[in-house]
Amino acid sequence: MRTIQLAAEQLAALELAAGEELNPLIPHTSEIIVGFVAFSLLYMVLRRAVVPKFEKAFADRTDAIQGGMERAEKAQREAEAALTQYKSQLSDARGEAQQIREEARVQGAAIIEEMRAKAQEEAARITSSAQAAIEAERQQAINSLRSEVGTLATELASKIVGEALDDQVRQSRIVDRFLADLEKQK
C-alpha cells in the first residue's frame, strides 16, 4: 500500500513538473489508482463476508416461503378431505336418522296394534266376565224368586184349599208347575 502511495506521489510530482495544467473535472491518476485499489478491497470484503450472508438469508427466506406455501397447500388438502369426510358422515347420519324414524314409526304402529288387540281382548274378557256375572245373578234371582214364589204360592194355596201343604216335595212340584204355566203364557 505504501508503494502505491509513493507511486501516486511521484506521478503527481512528474505531472507538476511537466507543467501540465490541472483540470478540476479530470481526476489525477493517483486518485484513480487509489480509488481502484480501495474499490477492489471493498469488493473483496463484500464478496467474502457480506454476499454469502445475503445469499444465505435469501435461501432461508425462499425456503421459508416455499415451505409455508407447501404447508398451506397441505393444510388446504387436509381441510378439503375433512370437509368431504364431514359431508359423508353428515349424509350417513341423515340416512341413519331417517332409518331410525322409519323403524320407530313401524314399532309405534306395532305397539298401537298390540295395545289395540290387548284392549279388545280385555274388553272381551270383561264382557264375558260381566255376562257370566249377570247370568249367575239371574240364576240366583230365579232361584230366589222360585223359592219365594213357591213359599207364597204354597201359603196361598193352603189358604185357598184350606189344608196345610207342609210336604216339601209336593210344594216343589206345585211351584214348578205354576212357573211352567207362567212361562207358557208369555
Please provide the ordered H/E string of secondary-structure elements: HHH
Averaging pLDDT over every residue, what do you get?
82
State the end-to-end CA separation. Answer: 162 Å
Shape: rod-shaped
Compute the CA-based radius of gyration: 67 Å
Q: What is the helix fraction of residues, given as a range?
A: over 70%
Structural class: mainly alpha
Q: What would you call the quaternary organization?
A: single chain
Number of strands: 0
Number of helices: 3
Domains, number: 1
Topology readout:
Layout (H helix, E strand, L loop, with lengths): L1 H17 L10 H133 L6 H18 L1
Helix pairs in contact: 1-2, 2-3
Question: What does it look like?
Answer:
Helix 1 packs across helix 2 (29-161) and helix 2 crosses helix 3. The mean pLDDT is 82. This protein has one domain (2-185). It has helices at 2-18, 29-161, 168-185. The protein is built from 3 helices and no strands. The chain has 186 residues and is mainly α. The chain starts with a helix and ends with a helix.
Brief descriptors of the model:
186 residues, mainly alpha, 3 helices
Task: Provide a short characterization of the protein structure.
This protein is mostly helical and 186 residues long.
